[in-house]
Amino acid sequence: MPAIEHFWAVVPAGGSGTRLWPLSRSGSPKFLHDLTGSGRSLLQETVDRLAPMAGDRLLVVTGARHRDRVLEQLPEVAADRVLGEPSPRDSMAAIGLAAAMLERVDPDAVLGSFAADHVVGDRMALERAVTLAAEVARDGWLVTVGIEPAHASTAFGYVRQGGELEDHAGAYVVERFVEKPSADLARSYVESGAYRWNAGMFVVRPTVLLDLLASWHPDLAAGLREIAADPGRLDAVWPTLTTIAIDHAVAEPAAAEGRVATVPADLGWDDIGDFHSLYGVLGGADLRVLGDPGDVLAEGSTGLVVPRGGRLVALVGVDDVVVVDTPDAVLVTTRDRAQDVKTLVDRLRDLGRDDLT
Amino acid sequence: MPAIEHFWAVVPAGGSGTRLWPLSRSGSPKFLHDLTGSGRSLLQETVDRLAPMAGDRLLVVTGARHRDRVLEQLPEVAADRVLGEPSPRDSMAAIGLAAAMLERVDPDAVLGSFAADHVVGDRMALERAVTLAAEVARDGWLVTVGIEPAHASTAFGYVRQGGELEDHAGAYVVERFVEKPSADLARSYVESGAYRWNAGMFVVRPTVLLDLLASWHPDLAAGLREIAADPGRLDAVWPTLTTIAIDHAVAEPAAAEGRVATVPADLGWDDIGDFHSLYGVLGGADLRVLGDPGDVLAEGSTGLVVPRGGRLVALVGVDDVVVVDTPDAVLVTTRDRAQDVKTLVDRLRDLGRDDLT
Questions:
Q1: Are B49 and B156 members of one domain?
Q2: What is the C-alpha to C-alpha distance for residues A228 and A207, in angstroms, rounded to an integer?
Q3: Same domain assignment for residues A162 and A292
Q4: What is the tens place of the pLDDT at every residue in A68-86?
Q5: Which ipTM value was assigned to this complex?
Q6: Smallest Cβ distance to A316: which of B329, B337, B356?
Q7: Cα dihedral angle (A127, A129, A133, A136), rounded to 10 degrees?
């Protein structure tokens, strides 16, 4: 496909992925890892699939401590296209900073934000959805790509889809955003057919986004525009910015005012939020290996093995197990309990074992 | 207690303990390891508990390749008391070689053989049993210490106990030896009250043992006596010796002729045959650690962890799991499947991964 005119891809590369410990660490977060066995990190795969739409119009926003690693992984991206955040300020500041810079360099820009640590199985479907979303965004909407729910997940937020837009077939008003639901609620959402997963893929004109932000968080919008006008002010202004997610800062209140649209799409999307999710993404046999199968010796076992410790991982008679081997820590859990890995990381921090987190 | 006069302890230190892989390796077998957390290896503990009965009358018989490690672990034992077998020839050759040497150095000797890789919880009970067994052995019997079965094990052979000896209260004729039974048979053995576990603890006069051997395996008995008469013949004669266990070579046929007695005893004995057995021996909480508990971080998990890889072992929500971490291999299995660990070692050998076995 030809690139979408004036379309800018913004990739917030943050989050530590603690539920993927000990693979993902605060110093080497999830987006820097190859979690699909493709030979490319999640960040690299994200940039790869955005390139056909955005060409070289790409901005990555990441923590200052990860900026060198990001540049290493993305040799095709110019250094001034990778913005380093002095400290974590959540997704609104990250995406908002990119928006504030873009409204200065390209008055016709439409930006799309895509997390650096998700997977998309169907790139063609993504391109179709984003192309439509960009058209809708040009008319002033804040557009979110609404993922067709593959199951009644309690791990994601949802958007409730309303009526179709008059001018844009295939795009719909968003009635509201809802937080991660209970299992019962998630089932009712999926059965109703009216809900989509909110994957944080927002498509919007930078000025629309910042003006919406300015109506609820004027200081934050002003701070971001101040940095864009004078990048030398970054270190002074950044610490004063409100730490808030884009969903709470803009998407939810804008939906209440009828300013948000959604383009539903079936993308084979996953956020690889934990090892259970990683198992699903990998597919294949009952025993799935992310790494060299020669490093695993198994007898009557199922589940997921990630052999990254340079050693043999041997299994006998364990079902739905998750074994993640790294040079300084080995994790053993089950697919069912994978979401609780985060508690280990909390305990390690309490124990002062920051060397392991 | 005072030592038992002319009592010689013979410790065959062999077997690779493949069901305890990756802790036990062919180059570093089970008996060299501390498997109880005492700070002493199984071999050292074995020698420690024999010393009150045997004083310094101790012979260790081990593979030539392990002799240096054995001497290192037993600095109190003179070098000529540790015999190195040029190649594995099973327990008859090992114990028979010690017997052949002892009948030359001490005509009044009674020997007791005790595997180097078993545990005994009740040393006083062992001393009482061996003291009685030595008295019975002086009258020409081949005596076995019969372990009170703690459960219907299918992992051990049994002896069927007959009538009490006229001259020795507490000692009984052995009607026969039986091989490892099926689960049903094991239950019936234990319910009958007439069966004891055969732990391979034989007490006998050396000449009685060798003369019994000579009646069924004359070449083997002659070969052992030839080596004892001229140790320089070891390398030439040893490879010609029959490879056979003492049970088959002597104990079973001698029982058929009414020449075997047993002294039943409740010793808290275990052969630590696999990690399930090791779990039982360690006792304590639902999650048992052989090693530094600081190397284990667990959340809602039970089973056994052996952290020997210098790394953190982290568990979340796994029950009855067995995790054995070593520098070049990590094993994950369950207590139920612990006996199948051996198959992994077989597969590693088939794969030519002798570096790991």
A1: yes
A2: 13
A3: no
A4: 999 999 999 999 999 999 9
A5: 0.91
A6: B337
A7: 120
Best mutation target among A287, A311, A341 (most B Cβ atoms within 10 Å) is A311
Cβ-Cβ contacts under 8 Å, A318 against chain B = 321, 332-334, 337
Which residue among B312, B325, B338 places its CB closest to the CB of A356?
A: B312
What residue has token string 């990254």? Answer: A308
Min Cα distance A113 → chain B (Å) is 34
- Of all residues in chain B, the one with the smallest CA distance to A356 is B312
B344 Cβ partners below 8 Å, 6+ apart? A297, A299, A314, A316, B21, B331
Query: What pLDDT shows up at residue B17?
Result: 86
pLDDT at site B230 = 97
pLDDT digits (tens, 9 = 90+) for A104-150: 999 999 999 999 999 999 999 999 999 999 999 999 999 999 999 99
Number of CB pairs < 8 Å for A and B?
119
**DSSP letter at B182?**
P
Check if the beta carbon of residue A83 is closer than 8 Å to that of residue A66.
no
Query: Over the stretch A50-66, which tens digit does the pLDDT of each residue have?
Result: 999 999 999 999 999 99
- Indicate if A169 and A289 belong to the same structural domain: no
On whether residue B1 sits in a domain, the answer given is no
Domain boundary pick from A270, A303, A335:
A270
Q: What pLDDT digit, counting tens, does each position of B69-123 carry?
A: 999 999 999 999 999 999 999 999 999 999 999 999 999 999 999 999 999 999 9
Which of B20, B23, B297 best probes binding to A when mutated, by most A CB atoms within 10 angstroms?
A: B297
Instruction: Classify residue A275: in a domain, yes or no.
Output: no
Q: With CA atoms as reference, report the closest residue to A113 among A134, A88, A132.
A: A134
Nearest CA in chain A to B328: A311
Among A309, A313, A344, whose Cβ lies nearest the Cβ of B316? A344
User: Which of A220, A240, A270 delimits the end of a domain?
Assistant: A270
Residue that has been written with the tokens 């043999």 in this structure: A312
- Whether A205 and A143 share a structural domain: yes
Q: Are residues B228 and B307 in the same domain?
A: no
**pTM for the whole structure:** 0.91
Together in a domain, A228 and A317: no
Whether the CB of A292 is below 8 Å from some CB of chain B: the reply is no
Note whether residue A2 is domain-resident.
no
Contact: A323, B334; criterion CB under 8 Å: no
User: For A337, which of B317, B329, B332 is closest by C-beta distance?
Assistant: B317
Q: Which residues contact A252 (CB under 8 A, 6 or more apart)?
A: A176, A177
The reply to whether B50 and B117 lie within a common domain is yes
Q: What is the pLDDT of residues B20-75, one digit of tens each?
A: 999 999 999 999 999 999 999 999 999 999 999 999 999 999 999 999 999 999 99
| Residue A107 CB contacts under 8 Å (≥ 6 apart), including other chains | none
Count of structural domains within chain B: 2
Q: Does B319 lie in the same domain as B348?
A: yes
CATH number of the domain within which A184 lies: 3.90.550.10
| Cα–Cα dist B283/B281, whole Å | 6
- Average pLDDT score over residue span B145-149: 96
Note whether residue A1 is domain-resident: no
Residue A217 to chain B, least CA–CA distance (Å): 41
User: Which residues from A are below 8 Å from B309, CB to CB?
Assistant: 311, 330
Range of the domain at A332: 280-356
Contact present, A149 and A196 (Cβ < 8 Å): yes
